[in-house]
Design a protein that fits this description.
The complex is a heterodimer of chains A (156) and B (73). Chain A has 156 residues and is of the alpha+beta class. In chain A, 56% of the residues lie in helices and 13% in strands. Chain A is rod-shaped and about 85 Å long. Classes of the chains: A alpha+beta (156), B alpha+beta (73).
Amino acid sequence: MNILKIKPEIYPLRVVYSCAYLFLDKAYISLDGNPQKEILVRIKAKKGNGSQRIAEEFMNELLSASLRYRIAKENKKIREYIVGSALLSVAGEAPAASVDCGCGDDESKKRHAAMNWGHVKNIRNYGGGGRGMAKKDDPLGISIPWEEKYEKKSKR
Amino acid sequence: MRKKVSVSFNKKFYSLGSIRKSIEEYRDVADFDIEKTGRGFSVSLYNFDNALAGHVGEEFSNHVLSIESTKKV
């Protein structure tokens, strides 16, 4: 059996857990000690006397896992931004501030901005910027949101 | 005399939830007792197959660690 003493300020506990997980099929691993001061990792090879070799591999893996962890931490915001903008573009949505439905009164604008979908879809599919464009390219009024049509009828 | 294997877990690294979950998944392999100790928990395994006697405790400990790792990472 080999016991590794790991300093958590160099290798965070999260990294130790992920490395331990990787080696569970090769060795019996247990964690002990103090996660703030010193982490003890007990390694016992499942087959033969390979504990020493597994312990060395474990240390190498710790190094690469801590590098991955650091890079992931540093790039977290960029990653979130890329994923967020990719998801928004797939959903056919643009950030709410940049969307203008083209409606005249403020109340309708607010309501449409909250719903977002109807007008943004119209802008994307029909190249229009609101009521005027939708009427021009869509004589049957298919692209006009249901509630807008309904509202007109009820006003009449 | 019935066989018994004890495994101790440091509460700073292993949560009771992970231990309980492992016990649930190992319930066909052995019978279990959990005891609270100063440093954490001591789990005793009984009534397991003779063929498993050599490593049942260590395999159980690995299983708890795998659950704990997936929770933390």
